[in-house]
Design brief:
ten-stranded mixed beta sheet; 8 helices; alpha/beta; Rossmann fold; globular
Length: about 210
Amino acid sequence: MENQTISANSNNLRVGIIGAGAIGQAFAKQLVKAGISVTLSNSRGPESLAGIVGQLGAKARAGTVREAAEADIVFISVNWVHLPAALAGLPSWNGRIVIDATNPVLLPGYRLAELDGRNSSQVVSDLLPGARLVKAFNTLLAAVLASDPAQAGGKRLVFMSGDDAAAKDTVGQLIDRLGFARIDLGGLDIGGKLQQFPGGPLPAVNLVKFG
C-alpha cells in the first residue's frame, strides 16, 4: 500500500536488514533486544547467516535480500561499491520506509566516492524509487551501536534526516523504542551532508542526552 501508516511500537513490526556486516548485526541486536522481529540478508544467501541468527535468538531469521526488502521497515548497510548490485532487481518499494545507514567510503584510504555534487543519501534515494528514505544509524561505530544505549543516566543519541515527515516520525518512534534518544537534522539536503562519512562533522560522534 502506498505510503502506508506504520507504528514502530506495533508488536507485529517487521524489520529487514540488507547487509549483515558489523553495523547490520549491531542494529539487529538492538531490534531483538526490543522484541522486534528482524530478517537479516546478504549477498551470500541465508545459509551464510545461520550462525549469526542463532546467536541473536528467536526474533531473528535469515532470508534473501528480496525477503528483507519486503519488511515494514528496511535497514540498508551495504558497502558503497556493492550498493547498486545489492538493490538491483528488487520489487517496487511502494512507499515503504528505508533507513539508510550507508556511507560513501572507498577503500583503501577511506576516500569519498564520486557523488556528482550530491550527498550520499540523495544518491541512495535514486536507487530506491518509491521508498521513503530516512538517514540514520550511520554515524555510530558498530561497537557503540551494539552497546547499551542507556549511559550514565542518559540515552545515546542517534541523528536522523529525511524529506518525508511521516517516515521520520516512524523511524523516530523506532529509535525511542530501542532506547536511544534522537535529533532530527531536517531534510536530506542539509542533514544528509552533516551525517555523511567522509565529509560530514557528525560521524563517530558519540553523544548522550540527559533529561
